[in-house]
Structure prediction request, 672 residues.
Amino acid sequence: MSRIPARFAQCQAEKRAALVAYVMAGDPDRAASQAVLDGLPAAGADIIELGMPFTDPMADGPAIQLAAQRALKAGGSLRRTLEMAKAFRAHDEATPIVVMGYYNPIYAWGPERFCAAAAAAGVDGLIIVDLPPEEADELVPFARANGIDFIVLTTPTSDDARLPVVLANASGFVYYVSIAGVTGTRSASQTAIDEAVARLRRHTALPVCVGFGIKTPAQAAAVAKVADGAVVGSAIVATLVESGPNEALALVQALADGVRGART
Amino acid sequence: MTNLNTYRSGPDERGHFGIFGGRYVAETLMPLILQVEAAYAAAKADPEFQGEFRSLLQHYVGRPNPLTFARRLTAAWGGAKVYLKREDLNHTGAHKINNCIGQILLARRMGKKRIIAETGAGQHGVATATVCALFGMECCIYMGATDIVRQAPNVYRMKLLGAGVRPVTSGAATLKDAMNDALRDWVSNVDDTYYLIGTVAGPHPYPAMVRDFQCVIGEEVRTQILAQEGRLPDSLVACIGGGSNAMGLFHPFLDEAGVRIIGVEAAGYGLDTGRHAASLTGGRPGVLHGNRTYLLQDDDGQITEAHSISAGLDYPGIGPEHSWLHDSGRVEYVSVTDDEALAAFQQCTRAEGIIPALESSHALAHAAKIAGGLPPEHLMVVNLSGRGDKDVNTVAKALGDEHFGGLV
Prediction:
C-alpha cells in the first residue's frame, strides 16, 4: 500500500503543507546519493522524489540533465534506482518515495515486471513525464495492482476540457507544473499559482503539489500557503554538485522551515 | 489497422501503427499536439490548402523533378534497368523542402509566428530556414555542436536565410540531442511557436503528416514510370534515417503486391562494431521523442549513440510506420556501411555526372549489390533524395584527399 495518503493526512493534522524533495538517483555517485537520500527525512522532507536517470530528459532543464548524465556515467540505472529505494526502506518505513523519470527504461524492463519490482523496493508512486493519459493504459493497471500511485502532471496548458482526461488516472496527489517550460528555469507568479491551485481543486479532491521553478525557502513558503505540497528539485540537485551533501541537506532544512512556517 | 487488404490505412485515430507511433510527450505539449492534429485534419480536407501546397511545389520547389534513366550505372551493374528519382534537383537540394512547404502553410493557418526545427546534416534546417524566409517568419534551428562543425556550409546558409542557429551541447551534441532541445523550446514557448519536425517521426500526427507531404515523390514516380515504361516498377530502393524520403516513395506503392520495396539503413563502421545507425537491424522497440519505434538502446533502456558518415542518417531511431512495415514484412530493410556508401557516391558521380548526397549513396550502394542479379527487364527506382554538394568536405576527408579537402 502506498504511504502517500497517510503522509498527507499527517501534514493536514499539523495544518501545514508537505515538502517534496527531489534528488537524482546515483548523482554524483551512488554513495553520496544514498547518503543524501537517507538524510532527507531528518532534514524535513515529507515526501521524496527519486529521479530515474535517462539519457534524453526532454522536459528537464540543465541542472537535472547534467545530474542524469553524472548518474549514468557513475553506473546509474533503473535497477540501481530501485536498489537505492530499498536501502532507504531498511531504516525508514514511513516516508513515501515517488520515482520520477521517463518511460523508455520502464518499457525496456516491462511495465508489469517493473511495477512489481518497484513495489518490492518500497516505492509508493510513479511520475512518468512522457506518458500522457492517451498512452498510460499500458502502465496504470500494473501500478494499481501493486499498490503504487500513478501521479499525474497537470500544466498551465491543461484547460478545463482536458483536466478530467488527465485526472482520470490520478491517485496519490496531483502534480501541478507551474510553468510552461522545463525544470529549474523560470518561476510562475504567485497569483498564477493561486489561481491554478483553486482551479485544480474544483476538479479533484486529491492533494495538489506545485513544482517547477521553486528554488528558495520564501518561494516554497508562498506555495505552501495555498497548495498541499511544494516540490523542489533543481535547486537541491545544483547545491549537491556545487557544494556537497551537507549543503544540499541544509537547503532542504531551510525549505522545510519555510514550508512549515507558511501558515502560522 | 485491422483492414488486412491494405497497408495504407494507418495510423489509427490515436496515431498508432500497430504497437508503434502514439503520443509519448509531456503533458504541457499534449494540448498543442492535439491542436496540430485538428488543424492538419482540417487542412488536409481543404482544397484551397492542397491547391496552395501543389502550386508552391510546382512554382517554387520546381516539381515535378525528373525520373532519370541511369544508363551507365545500369550498364556497370549489369542487370536491372535503374531509374533515379531526382529529389536532388529540388530547390534547396533535397526532398526535405516538400514537407517544409506543407508544414509552413499549416503553421501560418494556425496563426503561429515562430518556427523551430531540429537538424542533423543541415538539410532540414536549410529547408526550414528557406520557407521561413519565404513566409517572413522567425526561425530558430537546433543543431548539435558536433554537426555544426561537420556541416559548416549549411550552418552559414541558414544564417544567410535569416535563421538563428542554436548549438546544442547536451548529450553527444548530434541530431537526437537537437530534437531534445527543440522539444524543450516548444514546451517553453507554447503560445506562438510551431515545431516543424523534419522526418516521419515524433508524436502523432507528425509521422502521418510528413508522410502525406512527402508522398508527392511516389505519386510522381508512378506517373513518370507509366509514361516512360508503360508499367509500374518492380522494385523501389531508398535510404532511411528517420525515413521521410523512403516513406514518400514507398507509401503510394505499398498495396502494389508486385512491387518489391527496400529500405536501406546506415551500417556505419559495420553492424558488428556497434557503431552504426541501423535501428531496425540493430535495435529494439522503445519510446523516444514522442513515439514508440525501433531504437538503438542498451539493456537499461538508455538511448545509445548512432554513427554514420552521413549526418542525415545519424539518428538512433526511425519513423514508427517503418517499424510497423518492418514487423509486418511488407518492406525489406537492409543496411550499407560507410565504405560501401562512399564507393557508390564516387561511382554515381563518375558514371552519371550526378553528385549524390551521402544519405542517398546508401540507397545506391544497395542497388549496386542487387542489380546485377536481376534480369534486364526488371525496373528499379532508386530515390536520389538529395545532392552531395554539402558532403564534399566529408568525402575529401574520408578519401584521404586532405590537400583537396582544404580547397573546398
